[in-house]
DNA processing protein
Amino acid sequence: MTTAHDPLRVPEAGPAGDPVRLARAYLLRVAEPPAPALAAFVGQCGAVEAARLVRTGTVPEPVREETVARHEIEMAEVDLARAESAGARLVIPEDDEWPSWPLLALDNAVSRGLRWAVAPLALWVRGTAPLAKLADPAVAIVGARAATVYGSDVAGEFGHDLAERGYAVVSGAAYGIDGAAHRGALAAYGSTVAVVACGVNVAYPAGHTDLLDRIAANGLVVSEYPPGTPPARHRFLVRNRLIAALGAGTVVVEAGRRSGARNTATTAAALGRQVLAVPGPITSSMSIGCHDLLRAGVASVVTSPEEVIEVIGPLRADGPAAVGAEARSTDGLSEAASRVHDALATRHPRHPERVAAESGVPLRKVRASLVELELTGLAECGDDGWRRTSAGGGGPMRT
Amino acid sequence: MTTAHDPLRVPEAGPAGDPVRLARAYLLRVAEPPAPALAAFVGQCGAVEAARLVRTGTVPEPVREETVARHEIEMAEVDLARAESAGARLVIPEDDEWPSWPLLALDNAVSRGLRWAVAPLALWVRGTAPLAKLADPAVAIVGARAATVYGSDVAGEFGHDLAERGYAVVSGAAYGIDGAAHRGALAAYGSTVAVVACGVNVAYPAGHTDLLDRIAANGLVVSEYPPGTPPARHRFLVRNRLIAALGAGTVVVEAGRRSGARNTATTAAALGRQVLAVPGPITSSMSIGCHDLLRAGVASVVTSPEEVIEVIGPLRADGPAAVGAEARSTDGLSEAASRVHDALATRHPRHPERVAAESGVPLRKVRASLVELELTGLAECGDDGWRRTSAGGGGPMRT
């Protein structure tokens, strides 16, 4: 990998040369993400026209503010060439491999007023796998840099088992939990995606240079920052929204009271994603963040990779729409019925006795509640027992 | 302590001799708890008349079934004498020290169809403190016998800190978590109550003979089983309903997948009590029960004694009524509002920024939700920030 900039290098012909790609490469360079005004502007008049107007400075004031400082920087072809020399490419919304569905959560968030959650104009991607394929289904595993042995072991096990079951493991390539999750996925010969807060050709953190190479060789290193961009504190927070969006759910393994992982978790919750937290000893400062997320109701407890899959299910059922639907459909349930609903799983049928034990609701009341849930379409009864339906969150059965 | 029965001993005069006390002592001896039919019968015609009719066998069939096997056993005076010789007494509902309020949860449960949750006809109490005084406010701390060092340390710390703050610590005097909780309370020179599944004069478990003596000297050993009654498996489960009822909330520190502590927790939930579970490593089999309770929505996470107090608040606010009120009052809140409500504390005011961080709800939306909660009486704003009101659970502010 190199951070050297070679202006003499001439970009190849082909996709790198297409005007839309060049326009988006230019726009990623001239505006520091997130740039909501620019994104909306591109949505109105298209990337090529938007780029032309940004160059000439004839744009609405909000767009001008986001682009005035750098609009004269013309490095699109150079960035595309540098990416290529690092085994990377620019994936744009016009490409088949654009992860439209996962990123839809960002557009929906913006429409709910979270302007900072704007979708990226394009993504620099290092590695050969198609981005959309890796992002569906995917699970984000995040956590503290200063992880304990317990946290690292859990992250590695979750990364391994989820990758082994066909889920791409999305994380941030940081030391600690992130690295352990990526390594676990690689050890299972599975897919893993590192979303970084710098250029995809920048070796950061330095100690993960080899890990990043292995991730790129077996999965993808992704960033909205142009090649050569150094990491910066605010970029990690901006980057976190992409990790939260690309994962159907986010699993927090360990987190201090104030931590980036916690920021990713609250972002995922704001995007309507499932947020899961791994509990730990209350005597461990590295579990405080997880327990806070649980106490605040932002995250639910998870103790095994199987439970992650049970909660998250297939990606499509976990988009903001599905979650929104759940929020509506489970409103106004009796306390007993909603406890029973919580005790039901999406994919593994359970008998009323098991549900009673899980929920602490008396069996007689469980039976009544199950009927109530069936009538409202939140549960269904099969030969092997009762299951939560997609309307109730967790998505339809995988078969 | 002695289990020897000395029929020659003549009971003292005074309260031990009063007919109602004698009647209830007789009834506790002739029916194995729980005896819902007998309890209802006593409610209808009074203890003295009920005892007379039970003796003669002229009672409704359900009552007969509960009493026929032992109705000829006349040991009331002997039991009262043996209790007295063990430093114990029989506390009856007619006494000022009867814990009417805590036990009300049992009557309410029965009226909801949980017949097994019937309130005791009377309670054998060893120790000098007034029972009602110790039961208000009280917190139940329960857990595994085969506790880990982590669990024992946490139980001891919780027992100590809660007792130090004036809460009586209720538990079952078993090895492991129970013992650690009692010892923690004693170390703080606080009150602690052991509810046992045998006679209050029976040294069980043998290894806790001294502990039981210390509990009786500084608090109370309580049982609905007559003096000399040996422990039995089913009696532990029957006993658990009393632990769950006497505590304004139940804290589960460690529990295996199938455990008595778990039974106490689900019973407490069925009684409308607050149930709190201490998380632990997902790699520890002794934390499985806690995590299951959390995942099933039966318990909420607790990581410190302060959080216990924050959730439980004063006893009166945590009766089933209050909890029922919460179940009603928070129904139909928007997802954001209910997240914000979860992130508010009863006693410690929080600023919107803190609530946003806790809840993962954007600040703008937090402000709107707080107003919504204020209008519905679920939150109130003071000089130091926002607090959850009693209507929203957790009870009114302690001042």
Remarks:
- Residues 335-392 of chain A form a domain with the Arc Repressor Mutant, subunit A fold (CATH 1.10.10.10).
- The mean pLDDT of chain A is 87.
- Chain A touches chain B through 49 residues (CB under 8 Å).
- The two ends of chain A are 42 Å apart (CA to CA).
